[in-house]
Specification:
The chain is an alpha/beta fold and about 400 residues long. It folds into two domains: about 5-65 and about 190-405, QueA-like, CATH 3.40.1780.10; about 70-170, no CATH class. It is globular. Helix 5 (about 260-265) packs antiparallel against helix 7 (about 320-335). It has nine helices and 18 strands. Helix content is about 20%, strand content about 30%.
């Protein structure tokens, strides 16, 4: 592949006028525009017709993560507002589902907005639940580079932290929307199939799916499967380094069921379509985990894919997708796992050889972002042709914007 040292982020820039960024979603999810791309040809349609562009027995993979109300606003006695953005749990439970069930207190890694106004001391906010006053306090324990450890305590202590966030938190809208969340964002900044709490940013490619779209897909005998990648705030992290090699990708947590691995093996020849870049990174990470199991030949290998693992010579062994996934399945069987949990820092850049997916359903992404790099890796330099077409034909961009279907 092209040397990583020669891939500069300036090559993946384009002009995005602010007025082309969708501030709010359309009234009907499936009425968004659809840009269809295959073999250099582009066509415009409407998302509700996406089944027309897919093949019978295609397998669509969805990310069923659910966005949590991760933004907490506190007001000091001085009037200063402090925003605490919950990122990931630290104690007493690091596993996110256990952390959500924690009662009385929890410590999280957080971003702090207006940080200079909160040097020490406790912050407090109150709210009502079932006609009872509830009080949430936050205390900053220590700082680790750009994040802080914050200890939360609350009364009544029998409430779970999940309930605390639901009652007092706000939807973590992307910073580029530059507006406050409204009531409708609670369900529109969420897919209709969202299930597993844990994301602080939405897998936005799934926003366009409705029950009507699913019925059309089923009538064409198109198959579905789901996995989970909890999207972190790092998805909005801009690439500020001049070369891609200097950019540090963020880690995100993944959960994949054994039944999903089996479905991927069974449908390896049926064209697998990922719904979103998060699903894509999870699927491709699965392949590289299988490769690690085969190459390392050790039961101690962890499901932890580092940023540049796929580009290391030791892992480029021409191992087939089927053999890799079978290695993952055998690992789960031998370990007694029904669900595989892990993390990925995988960065997909131009020159990457996709191992599992044959198509991507996605939204339009920010200039100079790792998400745009992934799209460029999939369709090559035609990413610019597709984006120029969208800009010229009044497509709406970013999280609440229109959709794309890119096929190999």
């Amino acid at each position: 592949m092209k040397s990583l040292k020669n891939i500069t982020i300036s090559e993946y820039d384009y002009s995005l006028p602010p007025e082309r960024i969708a501030q709010f979603p359309l009234a009907e999810r499936d009425k968004s525009k659809l840009l269809y791309y295959k073999n250099g040809k582009i066509k415009e349609d409407v998302f509700e017709n996406i089944a027309d562009f897919l093949l019978e027995k295609n397998l669509l993979i969805f990310n069923e993560t659910k966005v949590i109300q991760a933004r907490l606003i506190f007001q000091k006695e001085t009037g200063a507002k402090i925003e605490i953005f919950c990122l990931e749990p630290v104690e007493p439970a690091k596993e996110i589902q256990l952390a959500f069930q924690q009662r009385s207190y929890s410590v999280w890694k957080c971003f702090i907005g207006n940080s200079k106004r909160w040097k020490k001391g406790q912050l407090q906010k109150s709210f009502e639940f079932n006609n009872k006053k509830c009080v949430l306090t936050a205390e900053r324990k220590e700082q680790e580079q750009s994040v802080s450890l914050v200890e939360f305590k609350w009364e009544p202590a029998d409430l779970t932290f999940s309930e605390i966030l639901e009652l007092s938190g706000l939807v973590p809208l992307p910073p580029y929307l530059n507006r406050n969340a409204v009531d409708s964002d609670k369900f529109r900044y969420q897919t209709v199939y969202a299930k597993n709490n844990g994301s602080v940013a939405a897998p936005t490619a799934g926003f366009h799916f409705t029950d009507k779209v699913f019925r059309k897909l089923k009538s064409k005998n198109i198959q579905f499967e789901k996995l989970t990648l909890h999207v972190g705030a790092g998805t909005f992290k801009p690439v500020i380094a001049e070369t891609i090699q200097q950019h540090e990708m963020h880690y995100e947590k993944m959960l994949v069921k054994k039944s999903t691995i089996k479905k991927l093996i069974e449908n390896n020849e049926n064209k697998i379509i990922s719904v979103g870049t998060t699903t894509t990174r999870t699927l491709e990470s699965l392949y590289w985990f299988g490769v690690k199991l085969i190459v390392e030949n050790s039961p101690l290998v962890e499901f932890n894919i580092r940023q540049w693992d796929p580009y290391l010579e030791k892992y480029n062994q021409r191992i087939s997708t089927r053999d890799s996934l079978l290695a993952v399945l055998n690992y789960m069987n031998n370990s007694g796992f029904e669900i595989l949990t892990g993390s990925t820092q995988l960065m997909i850049v131009p020159g990457y050889d996709f191992k599992i997916i044959n198509g991507i359903i996605t939204n339009f992404h920010q200039p100079k972002s790792t998400l745009l790099l992934l799209i460029a890796a999939f369709i090559g330099d035609d990413w610019r042709t597709a984006y120029d077409f969208a800009l010229a034909n009044n497509f709406r961009f970013l999280s609440y914007g229109d959709s794309c279907l890119f096929l190999m």
